[in-house]
Structure prediction request, 217 residues.
Amino acid sequence: MSEDKALSDARARISDCRRRLQRLDANSIDLLFAEARNHNWWQDRDVTDDQLREIWDMMKFCSTSSNTQPARLIFIRSHEAKEKLKPCLMPTNVEKTMAAPVTALLAYDLEFFDDFAQNYPVRPELGERFKTDAAVAEKFAFQQCTLQGAYLIMAVRAVGLDAGAMGGFNADLTDKTFLSGKNWKSNFLCNIGYGDLEGIKGPRLYRYDFDEVCEVI
Ligand SMILES: Cc1cc2nc3c(=O)[nH]c(=O)nc-3n(C[C@H](O)[C@H](O)[C@H](O)COP(=O)(O)O)c2cc1C
Prediction:
């Protein structure tokens, strides 16, 4: 397909989408935002590979700077893999993680720039700066991966599952256990399943109002 045709097709798909849907309805906003909580306990219901693929097929549309997409995911599901994860977890995160159908290990690839020309063909030369400065590359990878992590949580919710994100784990041990031989680093963990309300121990905690933290200038 010619580039012109690809561009006009993309524009047609965008305007068709906006014709079909102008904004999310109140139910969708409740599911994704207002009634979505960080879940801590799980119903005895499996999460399928198809659901994990569907989650990826949504979160992959996260915009990242220069389309770099440094996030990498390992879905930890088998009993053996969960047992390997156990010693990496902060004690308060152990029981719920062992009970979760799947735990996503979100990591970032320190060599994400190897694919720079593929992912950002408009200006491939912009990838050069990462090859010579590992600190710049790592800061960039962490930032963009974290953005993709927010999309991970939202995609989990969008397919009707619940997410339980966790920063309480030993990242060095997790890297050694799950990422050896890869030049990746752990960012955060996210339990995925159908939440059990037993794990919701209180009402929503304080959230800032617009006027407390936002300015329009
Ligand atoms: C990146 C991230 C890391 C978190 N780490 C932990 C954790 O290690 N253990 C835990 O119990 N909750 C953890 N949480 C859950 C937060 O404490 C929770 O989202 C917050 O208190 C607000 O609750 P709500 O999402 O239900 O409104 C984490 C959440 C995020 C997004």
